[in-house]
Design brief:
Elements: H1 3-18, E1 20-28, E2 36-44, E3 51-53, E4 62-66, E5 75-81, H2 92-99, E6 104-109, H3 120-123, H4 128-142, H5 144-147, E7 150-160, H6 162-170, H7 177-186, E8 221-225, H8 235-239, E9 245-250, H9 263-269, E10 275-280, H10 296-303, H11 319-334
Parallel strand pairs: 1-4, 5-6, 5-7, 7-8, 8-9, 9-10
Antiparallel strand pairs: 1-2, 2-6, 3-4
Helix pairs in contact: 4-6
């Protein structure tokens, strides 16, 4: 084999290996009152056998190499925030795709509003969700294993549903109780307004911070996937957002989250120069979540009537195709 061919083979082999996804999980204990379970995906050239994660009888998982060695290069970082009663598994598909492009991706399970922790005391501390993301970033930038492979100038956040509400606060959106209550009188939405008591939005609490500003200027881009509770943000705070925001909305409303009143509210009030807004007409709220396996709807309905809706997309639409389009839009935005 001639030298050029050998170099080409080496280059192709390296890039194939570089696309492998490393995976680890740990608990962050900097706040003893709110320990965080954190999932981390990262690029690796480890050739150990892959294992499926986030895979079960209803949902498709993805192949990763557990506890692999991270590639020794500078990687941009994306933090993920799951929706109400969701978990890191919901955006696992997106994490894997981002890692294949060289990103390190981290996702906390938000106590009180995650699948395996529905503590009412934790759930009502609405302000903790954006703080969770800041805490994870603090850890990554302060830990020797990770800070040497992170490009601290390229940090982004992606949130779905209540996670979108959470990441919006990282760039200056501020919860305003008066705004929320007025909007719930105008648009008495049971899906969002009905969560007021559970999430501590109805009335102030003793532990509630005096300021609702949870902005973190280390985040350079934010992606919001079909959020809820948008109308709890003050328009004044949305008017002053100067960090690029991508808003991707579902065109089919199947759960009292009409995009015009949620994602559209953000798009209306965030300055045009700082936001991009797109509606996926054939997507539902749950199209942004992981792939469902054949027969999943029946399984989910048998376990809990009504839960099969999480596997429904627009008629004739394919979730894998939607994921490809969503991923392309996110990558284009992050590379601005």
């Amino acid at each position: 084999m001639n030298p050029i061919a050998s170099l080409l083979l080496l280059f192709l082999s390296f890039n194939a290996l570089a696309n492998t996804v490393g995976f680890t999980q740990f608990q962050l204990e900097d706040d003893p009152h709110r320990p965080l379970n954190v999932t981390l995906w990262y690029p690796t050239i480890d050739t150990s056998p892959a294992a499926l994660v986030a895979d079960n009888i209803a949902f498709q998982g993805t192949p990763v190499v557990k506890n692999a060695i991270v590639n020794q290069a500078q990687h941009p970082v994306v933090l993920l925030s799951h929706g109400y009663r969701g978990s890191w598994r919901n955006l696992n598909w997106l994490a894997n795709d981002l890692v294949k492009k060289g990103y390190i991706v981290a996702a906390p399970d938000h106590p009180g509003t995650t699948t395996f922790d529905l503590s009412p005391h934790q759930a009502e501390q609405w302000w903790q969700r954006p703080r969770d993301l800041t805490r994870v970033l603090d850890f990554l930038l302060g830990d020797e294993r990770w800070n040497r492979v992170i490009d601290a100038n390229i940090i982004s956040a992606v949130g779905h549903s209540l996670g979108g509400w959470s990441v919006a606060q990282l760039v200056g959106a501020k919860f305003d109780r008066d705004t929320f209550q007025k909007q719930c009188l105008l648009f008495p939405n049971p899906r969002t307004c009905g969560l007021a008591t559970e999430l501590g939005l109805q009335s102030s609490q003793m532990a509630e911070p005096t300021s609702s500003d949870f902005s973190d200027d280390r985040f350079k881009h934010v992606v919001i996937l079909d959020l809820g509770l948008a109308r709890s943000f003050s328009t004044a705070s949305l008017n002053t957002i100067n960090t690029p925001v991508l808003i991707l909305a579902a065109g089919i409303d199947i759960g009292d989250l009409p995009q015009a009143l949620e994602s559209g509210y953000l798009a209306e009030h965030i300055p045009l120069l700082n936001r991009r807004y797109k509606v996926f007409e054939q997507a539902t709220h749950f199209s942004f979540m992981q792939m469902c396996k054949p027969g999943a709807i029946v399984l989910l309905e048998d376990e809990m009537p009504g839960d099969g809706v999480v596997c429904l997309d627009g008629k004739g639409e394919d979730r894998q195709n939607l994921h490809g389009l969503i991923y392309e839009d996110i990558m284009r935005f992050l590379n601005l």
